[in-house]
Specification:
Blueprint (H helix, E strand, L loop, with lengths): L6 E3 L22 H4 L7 H20 L3 H13 L1 H14 L11 E4 L1 H10 L9 E7 L6 E6 L2 H19 L15 H12 L5 E6 L3 H4 L2 H8 L3 H11 L3 E3 L2 E3 L12 H9 L2 H8 L23 E5 L2 E6 L2 H16 L11 E4 L11 E3 L2 E7 L9 E7 L1 H17 L5 H18 L6 H22 L5 H8 E4 L2 E5 L36 H9 L6 H9 L17 E5 L14 E5 H11 L7
Parallel strand pairs: 1-2, 3-6
Antiparallel strand pairs: 3-4, 5-9, 5-10, 6-7, 8-9, 11-12, 12-13, 14-15, 16-17
Helix pairs in contact: 2-3, 2-4, 2-6, 3-6, 4-5, 4-6, 14-15, 14-16, 18-19
């Protein structure tokens, strides 16, 4: 039997360039904090110090002061505070913190974290990433992930801290994927705002194997940074991939799974919107006449809205959209990329175009316009955005599989597994016209639950079975819930009970690095995928962590904590709940002796 190659390490177990066998006892510490234990570090002070540097980098990049922001980046990467935060991010906060790289190390002790901080510096000797294949939702295809070793992850987090503020000041306003403070819902709202007054032709496009084919040299030229950062990024790109014990060279592409990979992918695709605007500038009535602009009329530039490698181009003139497709194809060729023909289509938001039906799907939403009378709309049409039928089918299949896999499980276990899936899916689509889809899915679920209940009691009448598994709660006489005397029943959530709340798009070109922490912390509670409990606690705490006193930021990982632990008599009610950073939650539960439970 093959032994697992993952292990918890201490500083004495390895010597791989990041964790020495021994440290120099005569080495002078950079600060008193570095002499203390990991849990005694003043994280509040460190976060403020790093954020001030990031804000200065952002502002220097905004005004085009290259010398200033490169000097600040160098300062940040040498900062002990930034190194500590980078190590904490990859060893305590990130979801994949217990995923091992090629060296088999999946967790670090507090002592090992401190030694990693001391040894964190640019290093051209990069270990290859470990390839993991994960399934694509709704398909039989699998997506490759490249998992770096723990030391490289921490170094990537450090470099990202320095590079992200610079590029956040440069990124285009309609780029929404893999950026702090921006989400799918912002992209959908941008599309709605661009077509709500006038129907438009749409180029719905997808880039073929974007992350696997990005040209390394073109990416490094566009990065245009200091030699130190350039050498390190090149080392990560050329590190190679270990798959089933075999090492494969990486001559192109950025490995998905690294901390810095999303930033590099965004950087590679930066400039598409600018290229379209330069070809088709906004022209007024008296401006020059061109093949696409006639004097006496206004001409608005096409809208290009991008989320990662998916994008749409919108304009009322068909020839303009067709020309945009040619321009983008040529632009992508310089980066070693091309459009995927099977996922690129030209359609119209209101009328049928050729064999294409009106409307299009984007990020799981169906965007389409419908003709209505003047009584219903002055324009004669309405823009309706709904969950796409394909995503509804995938979601129902998942719900049905959970029910089938729990045929012998108690009702409470089935409800406990279904509720997070239903809540997450419903919250994602809670900003658009989803009530019909919600009711449809609830109606499909009922026969599955009925068959599940009847199978457990084949000799009982339906009246007996329904009384056992369906209860009257509030005004709902058919609530699928447990029957518990003297206790609150565990109830299955329905899709339809999720309220529809319109999403407010992020303002123009603002960034989490602009210093307006009140704006960004308030947006977190209004995010569509934030649960009601999280939103309520964020509002009560005014966007601040009660443990460290800092404002929550977009990239922070949050957890709900019981002020008085349950084992000490604490109840699961709002007055006994607070929301904390994940690392603050770990620290707090260590202090009060309660068990850490992630929610």
């Amino acid at each position: 039997m093959q032994k697992s190659n993952t292990r918890q390490i201490t500083p004495k177990l390895t010597n791989n360039g990041f964790f020495p066998l021994k440290t120099n006892p005569n080495r002078k510490a950079k600060s008193n904090e570095s002499m203390g234990e990991w849990k005694h570090i003043n994280w509040r002070k460190l976060e403020r110090r790093v954020f001030k540097l990031q804000k200065r980098i952002y502002k220097a990049s905004l005004r085009g002061d290259v010398k200033a922001f490169r000097r600040l980046q160098k300062t940040l990467m040498k900062s002990w505070a930034a190194k500590c935060l980078s190590v904490r991010r990859v060893t305590q906060d990130n979801q994949g913190k217990k995923t091992a790289g090629v060296d088999g190390i999946k967790s670090l002790s507090p002592e090992a974290r401190l030694i990693l901080v001391a040894k964190l510096k640019p290093n051209s000797k990069v270990k290859p990433t470990r390839r993991v294949w994960i399934p694509k939702p709704g398909t039989e295809e699998k997506r490759p992930l490249g998992i770096p070793v723990m030391g490289d992850r921490a170094l990537q987090a450090l470099f990202k801290m320095a590079l992200e503020p610079e590029w956040e000041a440069r990124f285009e306003p309609n780029s929404y994927g893999f950026r702090p403070g921006r989400s799918c819902h912002d992209a959908i709202e941008a599309i709605f705002l661009s077509i709500r007054r006038k129907p438009k032709f749409v180029l719905d496009a997808d880039i073929s194997k974007c992350f696997d084919r990005i040209d390394h040299e073109a990416l490094l030229r566009k990065l245009n940074t200091s030699p130190t950062i350039r050498r390190q990024v090149r080392a990560w790109l050329k590190a190679g991939v270990m798959d089933n014990g075999q090492l494969f060279a990486t001559s192109e592409g950025t490995p998905q799974g690294g901390v810095i990979s999303p930033l590099l992918a965004n950087l590679a695709l930066h400039g598409m919107e600018k290229r379209i605007k330069s070809e088709f500038p906004k022209l007024k009535v008296r401006d020059r006449e061109t093949w696409f602009h006639k004097k006496g009329s206004n001409f608005n530039s096409p809208y290009l809205i991008r989320y990662a490698d998916d994008f749409v181009i919108l304009h009322e003139d068909l020839t303009v959209v067709q020309r945009c497709q040619q321009i983008i194809s040529e632009w992508l060729h310089d980066m070693g990329l091309e459009l995927k023909p099977s996922k690129t289509r030209l359609t119209h938001t209101l009328n049928k175009y050729g064999e294409e039906e009106p409307g299009f799907n984007f990020l799981g939403f169906n965007i389409r316009q419908w003709k209505v009378g003047k009584y219903h709309s002055k324009q004669g049409f309405k823009t309706i955005i709904t969950p796409s039928s394909y995503k509804q089918k995938i979601h129902y299949d998942r719900v049905a599989s959970i029910i089938d896999n729990h045929k012998s499980a108690p009702q409470a276990a089935l409800i406990n597994n279904l509720n997070p899936v239903i809540t997450g899916w419903s919250n994602y689509y809670s900003t658009v016209v989803s009530k019909v889809a919600y009711s449809y899915l609830d109606n499909l679920m009922y026969p599955k639950l009925k068959a599940w209940a009847k199978r457990r009691h084949p000799k009982k009448t339906w009246e007996w079975v329904s009384n056992k598994y369906w209860q009257t709660i509030g005004g709902d006489n058919w609530a699928f819930a447990t029957k518990q005397e003297g206790k609150n029943p565990m109830r299955l959530r329905t899709h339809a009970e999720t309220p529809i709340v319109r999403h407010v798009k992020v303002k123009g070109e603002v960034s989490p690095y602009d210093g307006n922490l009140i704006y960004w912390s308030s947006r977190m509670g209004k995010h569509p995928e934030a649960t009601k409990r999280v939103a309520t606690l964020l509002k009560e705490q005014k966007g601040k962590c009660t443990h460290c006193g800092l404002y929550f930021r977009e990239e922070d990982v949050l957890e709900i904590d019981h002020i008085t632990p349950k084992k000490l008599g604490g109840k699961d009610e709002y007055k006994n709940l607070q929301i904390l950073h994940r690392h603050c939650h770990d620290e707090k539960t260590t202090e009060d002796g309660s068990v850490v439970k992630y929610t």
